[in-house]
Write the structure tokens for this entry.
Amino acid sequence: MPDTETRTDLQRLIDWLKTYTGYDILGNFRVDYTDQIPSNGAVFPQGLQEVERTETILGDVTLTNQYNFGLYFTFEKSAEDDVAAKINADWLMGFQRWVQEQNARRLVPNFGNTQTPARASAQNGQLFSVDGCGTAIYMVTLSVTFEQFYPDEFK
């Protein structure tokens, strides 16, 4: 069912991400900015992509759209700290599994205006960078696909 509240799509996404049980380790979650302070996250919106367009003979149009996001997480990790590396990698993989489960259970927020459930995927989780101060940034690509219906206005 479409979310008819007045929250923006970005806020709805962030609110959904906050329901991840591992989210509690993130002190801050920002938009378009992350720093080297451990236990922080950030979302970098990468825009909207039209994936598919269908049109009925009556002129109604249904678009399959996809939002793409880069999610960045800053955690503690020294250059050769295998223990922290494993903890961080486990968290990242757990997050990706959570997105997969949310998708399977149809709990992904719907950004469209149809009854078709939105679909999400979190992929390419990886170590993005390590600094000499004991922190590392991990990155995941998050995609959310949804439908938007536009009736023919000239009927």
